[in-house]
Amino acid sequence: METEHIDTLSKLLKSMSHPIRLKILCLLRDQELSVGDIRNQVKTTNANVSQHLNILRNQGIIDCRKDANFIYNRVTDPRITELMKTMQELYCPHK
Amino acid sequence: METEHIDTLSKLLKSMSHPIRLKILCLLRDQELSVGDIRNQVKTTNANVSQHLNILRNQGIIDCRKDANFIYNRVTDPRITELMKTMQELYCPHK
DNA sequence: TTTCTATTTTAGTAATTAGTTTAATGTAGT
DNA sequence: ACTACATTAAACTAATTACTAAAATAGAAA
């Protein structure tokens, strides 16, 4: 694997490797959620969720659309969905 | 996904998300290498490689065997190999 | 034993990352 | 206009992580 890919991938993994951000990605895997929705599930402050969402946006993992005064977030990159699926299969004991 | 799995996985991703450690994992995917071998490929100090290897060992990703005064490292967890394979397929343009 | 080589550990510092608080922005409804 | 709500931005402290250099450990060979 080339250095360029190593760097790209390590940045991606880093952005996913915070428990709050990983949880957000899980939540957004099959639904669109507002910042407030996420805050309720993750139990932290709005500002903190916002900061984490921003990191995921800058990484190109999620994007958002605005509706009234809500911002709905969703996973955009299908590779992330695929990667999450693989991780779940490998690390979550299948029922 | 349960909180426990989220924590486990985020720790795993964190340990993989440093470029040097990710490169080490790539190198060890299909071969056993000594600390010095790795240092030559990664271009840093022995101590630095040793520290990164230690992080990967504590995470249970790799283990090592001693032969004379060399320590040979290898990936032990087959899930890591599988995960690396998926990441490579998704993020390295296939020839 | 001494010497050399490979690796690890420790200690120190620099750099990055995380979380809290507060202020600011934007939008809908009254 | 004002008020309420949702979100973001800025500033700061605390905590973690990374790298370097030097000392320590362990084994092989002389």
TrEMBL record, chains A, B:
Check the record and name the Gene3D superfamilies matching this protein.
Answer: Winged helix-like DNA-binding domain superfamily/Winged helix DNA-binding domain
**Name the UniProt record assigns to this protein:** Winged helix-turn-helix transcriptional regulator
Report a single Gene Ontology molecular function: DNA-binding transcription factor activity
Entries under Pfam families matching the protein: HTH_5
Q: Which organism is it from?
A: Candidatus Desulfatifera sulfidica
Domain of life of the source: Bacteria
Residue span(s) of domain HTH arsR-type: 1-95
Which terms are listed as keywords in the entry?
DNA-binding, Transcription, Transcription regulation
Upper lineage is: Bacteria, Pseudomonadati, Thermodesulfobacteriota, Desulfobulbia, Desulfobulbales
Supply the PANTHER family for this chain: ARSENICAL RESISTANCE OPERON REPRESSOR ARSR-RELATED (PTHR43132:SF2)
Q: Does the keyword Transcription regulation apply?
A: yes
Stored InterPro entries: ArsR-like_HTH (IPR011991), HTH_ArsR_DNA-bd_dom (IPR001845), Metal_resp_trans_reg (IPR051011), WH-like_DNA-bd_sf (IPR036388), WH_DNA-bd_sf (IPR036390)
